[in-house]
TrEMBL record:
UniProt GO molecular function: hydrolase activity
Pfam short name (any one): Phosphodiest
Highest taxon in the source lineage: Bacteria
Descriptive protein name: Type I phosphodiesterase/nucleotide pyrophosphatase
Organism the protein comes from: Kutzneria buriramensis
Record-linked PANTHER family: BIS(5'-ADENOSYL)-TRIPHOSPHATASE, ECTONUCLEOTIDE PYROPHOSPHATASE/PHOSPHODIESTERASE
Length: 367
């Protein structure tokens, strides 16, 4: 597949991050695949949207990060390269085909939007119980160690947090200062999350002035933590995905050929789960390929699984993957201006298999 890369599950993907870090802490039962140095405490700082290629392209805006990235090898996100899926892999150490958070939205069996944990705009935490949607133990639960989750207050008790990050003590953060303070006061394992770079990228586009200024704030945040680490502690910095600019689109809510035979449409602008009516998969596949042409890879679910996009796929997760998958290429996107009016206006998007979206940094700093 030209201009795409596959997840490096088991070697250098987000699935290996937390197990490697807990192994470095001495927790039993974890493999240190990434070769992290031994530490007495660890903080994992997740910078939402900090793609490897974006970091390299804007070195002048992030001198501290880029100086430490020189000579390093990136990781891949899993598939799709989107926040809910990636945070699930960080929290569980598993592929999307195992943990089951297979996208921004997916059939479970109702169309669940995983970040707000809503169905048709309504809170679904009682009807689609997070601990049942993702029942496998998290890395935090398996570690038996003290874990702190430092993240925005809105994530406290959210469906996604309960589903994939359970097992830690949640401590809400409100700004860069208290995020850094919590990272530095950690005595065990701290999972810290910063989301504003991704927000600015969606609204203004990656590489925009607003995005570059936000990247500079992120750079100084990392430097402020890394240069004040207590002896024996370790800071690891990674991201959930990169981002591309959305410059051309097709609207699935107004294009009749993209609606025929489709019973449910999930995913997001860069990757769509297309759930077909019984017996309609062949026709849907042909129609989507004709409309999207070279702008997207349009494949059957079976092909994506065989190629390893989702890693091992359990019987529990299989129905959540679309019968047809449409993966956008270049700077193209498949919007839904009616069902996803806000997302359809984004300047920056992610989720696909391109290097700009799939490659993320993994940098470590020792105290």
């Amino acid at each position: 597949m030209a201009d795409t890369i596959l997840p490096r599950y088991g070697e250098r993907s987000l699935c290996e991050v937390t197990p490697s870090l807990f192994a470095a802490l001495g927790a039993a039962g974890f493999d240190n695949v990434l070769g992290v140095d031994t530490a007495s405490s660890v903080c994992l700082l997740v910078i939402d949207g900090l793609g490897w290629e974006l970091l390299k392209s804007h070195a002048q805006d992030a001198p501290f990060l880029t100086s430490h990235a020189a000579g390093k090898e990136p990781l891949t996100a899993g598939f799709p390269s989107t926040t809910a899926t990636s945070l699930a892999s960080l929290g569980t150490g598993l592929t999307s085909g195992q943990h089951g958070i297979v996208g921004y939205s997916f059939a479970a069996p109702d169309l669940l939007h995983a970040l707000p944990w809503r169905v048709d705009g309504v809170d679904a935490r009682e009807t689609l119980v997070p601990e049942e949607i993702q029942p496998l133990p998290t890395v935090f639960e398996r570690s038996g160690m003290e874990v702190t989750i430092a993240a925005p207050v809105l994530q406290n008790g959210s469906g996604l947090t309960r589903s994939v990050l359970r097992g830690g003590t949640f401590r809400p953060v409100f700004a860069l200062g208290d995020l850094a303070a919590m990272a530095l006061s950690n005595n065990g394992f701290c999972y810290a999350y910063h989301g504003e770079l991704d927000t600015v990228g969606h609204l203004y586009g990656p590489g925009s002035l607003a995005w570059r200024l936000q990247l500079n704030h992120v750079d100084r945040l990392v430097e402020s933590i890394a240069t004040a680490l207590p002896q024996g502690s370790l800071l690891a910095v990674t991201a959930d995905h990169g981002m591309v600019t959305m410059t051309s689109t097709v609207d699935a809510d107004t294009e009749p050929a993209l609606q025929q035979g489709v019973r449910l449409l999930g995913g997001e602008p860069r990757v769509r789960h297309v759930y077909t009516e019984p017996g309609a998969t062949d026709d849907v596949l042909a129609s989507w390929r004709e409309v999207l042409g070279s702008n997207a890879l349009v494949v059957r679910r079976e092909y994506a699984i065989e190629e390893g996009w989702f890693g091992p796929v359990s019987d529990r997760v299989l129905p959540r993957i679309g019968d047809v998958l449409a993966v956008a290429l270049g700077e193209f996107a498949i919007t839904r201006t009616v069902a996803e009016s806000r997302e359809s206006t984004f300047a920056g998007v992610h989720g696909s298999l391109t290097p700009a979206e799939m490659l993320v940094p993994f940098l470590t700093f020792a105290g």
